[in-house]
Amino acid sequence: MNLIIEFYPHLLAGLAVTLELIACAAPLGLLIGIVVALSRAYGGPLLSPLAYIYQIIFRGTPLLLQLFIIYYGLPRLGIVFSPLTAAIIGFGSCSGAYHSEYLRGALLSIPLGQVEAARALGMGKLQTIRSIVLPQMIRRAIPGCSNEITYLIKYSSLAYLVTVIDLTGQGRLIAYATFRFFDVFLIVGLIYLGLVTIANHLLQLLEQKVRIPG
Amino acid sequence: MLLVIVCLGLGLILGVLIALAYLYGTRWSRPILAAYDRVFRGFPALVLLFLFYFGVGSFPGVHLSPFIAVLLALGLRSAAYQSQIYRGSLLAVEKGQVDAARSLGLTKRQTIWSIVIPQAAYFSLPGLSNEYSVLLKDTALAFAVGVIELLTVGKFIALRTQAILPIYLTVGAIYILLTYSGLLVFWLMERSIRIPGLSGHSRGRME
Question: Is residue B137 within 8 angstroms of chain A, CB to CB?
Answer without folding.
Answer: yes
